[in-house]
Amino acid sequence: MRVLWTPLSKPWAPPSADAELCCGTMAAQLEFTCTQHADPFECGDNLLVYNEVLDEYGLIVHDGGPSYVLIAHCPWCGTRLPESQRDRWFDETEAKGFTDDTLPLEYLTGEWRRRSR
Q: Of 101 and 60, which is predicted with more confidence?
């Protein structure tokens, strides 16, 4: 499944300390910093992205936009990755009547997922 970076009002950011990474290679890939591109979607050397809001990992599609292909397993160690919370995020924000302009801060971080564990 190819998806766009969402929510669209939230710019890309590297994973926080709360992100659970399965292996050192995964961590290194997500920590990669390009000296020419601040945005991983603009850099051909960036392979992987983690969307902390939706708790999903993806292989970047380098087509000039913020899209990626969801992955279910780590490409390096084979660990099963967490199930994307994309559908849950959209269901919950829609049910509460939030729009992109009225989202509480917790829905622009992984906090909304952690509070309901």
A: 60
* Total number of domains in the chain: 1
Q: What is the pLDDT of residues 63-86, one digit of tens each?
A: 888 889 999 999 999 999 999 999
Short-list 23, 8, 3, 34, CA closest to 78: 23
Boundaries of domain holding 68: 2-114
pLDDT band at 5 (very low <50, low <70, confident <90, very high): low
- Residue 56, token pair as written in the block: 């999903």
Q: Among 91, 79, 12, 25, which residue's Cα sits nearest to residue 52?
A: 12
Tokens of 76: 């390096």
C-alpha 12/C-alpha 32 separation (Å) is 14
Alpha carbons 31 and 4: distance in angstroms, whole number: 21
pTM for this predicted structure: 0.85
